Amino acid sequence: MTDSLYPIAKVAHLLSLGQPDELVLVRGWVRTKRESKQDFAFIELNDGSCLANLQVVVPGELPGYATSIKELSTGTSVSFKGKLQASQGKGQRIELLASELHVLGTADPATYPLQKKGHSFEFLREKAHLRPRTNTFGAMARVRNAISFAIHSFFQERGFLYVHTPIITGSDCEGAGQIFQVTTLDLARLAASGRAVDYSQDFFGKPAGLTVSGQLEAEIFATSVGDCYTFGPTFRAENSNTTRHLAEFWMVEPEMPFYELADNMTLAESFVKYIIRQVMEKCGDDLAFFNERIEPKLLESLNNIISHNFIRLSYTEAVEILQKSGQSFQFPVEWGVDLQSEHERFLTEQHFAQPVILYDYPRQIKSFYMRANDDGKTVRAMDVLVPRIGEIIGGSQREERHDVLVARMQECGLKPEDYWWYLELRKYGTVPHSGFGLGLERTVQLITGMVNIRDCIPFPRTPKSAEF
Fold first, then answer.
1. pTM of the predicted protein model
2. pLDDT tens digits, residue range 412-428?
3. Which domains does the chain have, with CATH numbers?
4. Roughly how many angstroms between the first and final C-alpha of the chain, as a whole number?
């Protein structure tokens, strides 16, 4: 007779293996304890491997029962050994009849924050070291994991090269100046002395900061080794305390040589659908939980996305639709302004009731690297919009013409000499190329139905908050 350690996610399959005498070892944290007058107890155990708990029956004749059972409270970590059997109770097919019990770590019920009751998401953000033990955030973590795996699978299956772009950089990809500074200088001492900051004495010898995007560096590899993607943390010092913004977030950014805008849109649509299908296949129970507890139309919305071709619509056509809609928007719509979330959601949820890809945006509201159209007014930009979220992907065909790119930099108030290496890519074997960016946390929002993006990342970084 042998015993094996199993995650609870796999325990349910063991009864069908035809080994009824096998001892099973399980470990986890106590969710609830219920003692019977007949001198035995029922323990609900969860180890984070799945949404479901495992019911453990602890008989009173177990050695040390009287002492150990008193130590078991919500949050206690424990190890059980026993045999699986069909359960006679409601809500579970199997249970574990314990033959051994070992308390690994107690949890004082007087101080343990996560007792068996509902907790607000605001409260749980203050307990980010414990919130993964809840149903919601355990499910969120598994879905986030499945999304990340699907991202890599999508590109690896298509022969893309995974490139690690720098976190510390001297380039501002977006030109918006929202960069967190990285320095070894004692700025407080310099300020007290009244001296100016001399960056030549800094670690890198010039101003440096945390990256807002890996796109520019990814373009280096795209124009050298072919299709590639970067997937990592990015940072933006935007002082926005909203449900849609984080100071630290993860981005996946593919770059493809020889792609024009239409190719870019096709790949982006396939990418979104692939991720959703993979998560629906691998995290069915977790998505059912989110559909029941968080967003009642979640599964309907996800199925709507994967079952429709994304509508292609120019920015100009979208503005005309919004202006003629008769809707009263908080932000007025006119040609030349950036569309807001309310406009994007109207298009995807009411007017079309399906995903939309907008393209050819006004040049004055888009970044310097986007290819200029011949009309002199628009650039080859695109945004993928989905119901409930709005923009899920932003991308463009990149400007491959050296002289046009220099002019665009100057138009945007940038110094071409600061991007000398980026410009040289346009001098030595330039090619048409395209790319886009997808935010991981916004994708988690889409697939889970969570309202606040701070609940879609393990440890949110926001203005005045960098705990844990």
1. 0.94
2. 999 999 899 999 999 99
3. 3-105 (2.40.50.140), 131-176+212-455 (3.30.930.10)
4. 45
